[in-house]
Amino acid sequence: MEGSLEIENIFSDIKVINNDVHKDNRGYFKKLYSTELNEYLNFEIDEVYFSKNKKNVVRGIHYQNKTNGLAKIVKCVSGQILDFFIDLRKESSNYGQHSSKIISEENSLSILVPYGFGHGFSVLSEEATVLYLQDGSYKQEAELGINPLSIDFDWRVSNPIVSDRDLNLPNFLEGDKQFYL
């Protein structure tokens, strides 16, 4: 790929994107997405969201049903988060396995979370703004999830702040029947 854009596979189909950054005495300019990246990843942008978050917030673990699959590129544009992903594709040799990567304004990384994976994150800095580029459209009736505190995972936050909705999601093993077949 051209320029300083780098792609790294870190876990099954998860890709880490090292975004192109140009710095000078005025500050910096970052390329977050391009047609070249679109072609390489086979990713179409249908929706763009962002969230503003406080320290110790844990969001997720969310995904949509197979009929309404959703892939996303996640970018932390300010602050620092621990991005989490879990393979929910029952046919995958990595089914149920999870991993994470710190992404921040400073390291300029983005994470591609493909169809069939659950996604969540925790906020490590005082605040964090997270940008989501989505391939597929969010449909509330298609959204599913896993209680993030039910996974054996260190979110690296003290006193996690989790929404009531996320706390009431099924535990990983309880929700097993809803995962991708």
Structure description:
The structure is a single chain. About 5% of the residues lie in helices and about 45% in strands. The protein has a 6-stranded antiparallel β-sheet, with no helix packed on it. The chain has a 5-stranded antiparallel β-sheet with strand order 9-8-11-6-13, with no helix packed on it. The protein has helices spanning about 35-40, 165, and strands spanning about 5-10, 15-20, 20-25, 25-30, 45-55, 60-65, 70-80, 80-85, 100-105, 110-115, 115-125, 125-135, 145. The protein has about 180 residues and is mainly β.
CATH topology: Jelly Rolls
Mean pLDDT: 89
* Major sheet description: 6 strands, antiparallel
Indicate the proportion of strand residues.
Answer: over 45%
Helix content: under 10%
Give the CATH class: Mainly Beta
Radius of gyration: 16 Å
Total discrete domains: 1
Q: Which residues form runs of ≥5 with pLDDT under 50?
A: 1-5
CATH-derived architecture: Sandwich
The counted number of beta strands is: 13
Q: What are the secondary-structure elements, in order, as H or E?
A: EEEEHEEEEEEEEEH
Largest sheet: spatial strand order: 1-2-10-7-12-5
The separation of the N and C termini measures 34 Å
Tell me, what's the shape?
Answer: globular
| Category from helices, strands and their pairing | mainly beta
CATH-assigned homologous superfamily: Jelly Rolls
Helix segment count?
Answer: 2
